[in-house]
Design a protein that fits this description.
The protein is of the alpha+beta class. It has one domain (39-143): Immunoglobulin-like (Sandwich). It has helices at residues 7-20, 25-28, 57-61; strands at residues 40-42, 48-50, 63-70, 74-83, 89-98, 104-114, 118-127, 135-143.
């Protein structure tokens, strides 16, 4: 017997592919693109999850996630942003909260400013109900200055 894939999952995959499948050349060169409106999709349970998450490879190397903690009502991811540059930098950090099988339950975005040649702690929290295990996924990091 062949396993079935829910139509909503196929639709979500098509939307994610159409909205986020292309390369963002402005990000790969280190320049900062103008902010775009955030498209979201509503997941089961009512959580809004962004479809176009800013992610710059160089910025992502400077941000780490050290913890993922929570309970049945709220989850928090936390870590450190490291700035090797000679001027302060503001990072936008987006975290997806998922099931162990990678179903997105919720998301959170935060901004953290690290002074020149310094580190700064960050955390992102989302309130949602869950009865099982949750994973925190560092989905995107971008310099927003």
């Amino acid at each position: 017997m062949r396993p079935r894939t829910p139509a909503s999952a196929i639709t979500l995959l098509a939307v994610l592919t159409a909205c986020g499948g292309g390369a963002n050349h402005a990000q790969s060169t280190g320049t900062v693109a103008a902010p775009q409106p955030r498209a979201t999709v509503t997941m089961h349970g009512g959580a809004l999850v962004p479809l176009n998450v800013p992610n710059q490879v160089a910025a992502r190397r400077d941000v780490s996630m050290g913890s993922c903690t929570g309970d049945q009502n709220s989850w928090r991811a936390a870590g450190t942003a490291t700035n090797a540059a000679g001027a302060s930098v503001t990072f936008e950090v987006t975290v997806f909260f998922t099931t162990p099988r990678a179903t997105v339950l919720s998301s959170a975005t935060t901004k953290v400013t690290a002074a020149a040649h310094d580190r700064a702690p960050w955390s992102a929290t989302s309130r949602f109900r869950t009865g099982g295990a949750v994973r925190c996924v560092l989905r995107g990091v971008a310099v927003v200055r």
